[in-house]
Amino acid sequence: MSKVKFKRILLKISGEALMGNKSYGIDPVVINVIANEIKDVYKLGVQIAVVIGGGNIFRGIAASAGGMERASADYMGMLATVLNALALQDALEKRGILTRVQSAIEMRELAEPYIRRRAIRHLEKKRVVIFAAGTGNPYFTTDTAASLRAMEIGADVILKGTKVDGVYDSDPMKNKNAKKYDKLNYLEALQKGLKVMDATAISLCMDNNLPIIVFNLKKSGNVKRIVLGEKVGTIVK
């Protein structure tokens, strides 16, 4: 373990990342790639927790903008994250990795209820813990859920997997001259409105000195490189 920089990590994966090249749902190829990335880090002895979004299935904010009542739309989005969590659990267990899904909304037949001390115990017993259903409350994003859970379990870092290799001053998919940041502090990210995580999530991390690393989840081996201390993506601290 001496070569490992982070002993307990929280990996945040957007729901959109699971779509791959599809327009909706879960791409089995992508879920298997992510499971392999987690397995490589798991074999190093790192304790891993995961928070997954639900945007590949249902986006509460978009539905709210279309006229649906916001709280109902957000609860539907939380249920979408449970589907994604179960898919990832299946992929990990096929690789021999013990996994537990903990849901902030109780559904005993599918997942354990979220209990902080139980989650920590699972991690200590070398089980990957997937946190589903966000915070269990409407009006909070899965980014905020990731920050909250990371603090509760005592994670060393949040690794936010995205489609690009870090944080830019504008969308690199649309602007070829977009400038990438290697390092940022929390206030810079907030004041410049950079899409690291939402403001509530960044503020939580700032108040508790929890670093965030934004990186390209599509590039094979990136999670392992970060855990071993290589400079990958953008660090916010």
Can you offer a commentary on this structure?
α1 crosses α3 (70-93) and α5 packs parallel to α7 (199-207). The chain has eight helices and eleven strands. The chain is an alpha/beta fold and 237 residues long. α1 links the parallel β1 and β2. The two termini are 24 Å apart. The protein has helices spanning 28-42, 60-65, 70-93, 116-124, 142-153, 186-191, 199-207, 222-227; strands spanning 8-13, 47-52, 99-103, 112-113, 128-132, 157-162, 167-168, 180-181, 183-184, 212-216, 234-236. The chain has a single domain (8-236), classed as Acetylglutamate kinase-like (Carbamate kinase), CATH 3.40.1160. Strands 4-3-5-2-1-6-10-11-9 form a nine-stranded mixed beta sheet, with helices on both faces. Strands 7-8 form a two-stranded antiparallel sheet. Helices cover 37% and strands 19% of the residues.
CATH superfamily annotation: Acetylglutamate kinase-like
CATH topology assignment: Carbamate kinase
CA-CA gap between termini: 24 Å
The chain-level structural class is: alpha/beta
CATH architecture: 3-Layer(aba) Sandwich
What's the alpha carbon Rg, rounded to whole Å? 17 Å
Classified by CATH, the class is Alpha Beta
Q: Order of strands side by side in the largest beta sheet?
A: 4-3-5-2-1-6-10-11-9
| H-E string | EHEHHEEHEHEEEEHHEHE
What is the overall shape?
A: globular
Number-wise, the strands total 11
Question: Would you tell me the overall average pLDDT?
Answer: 95
Work out the count of structural domains: 1
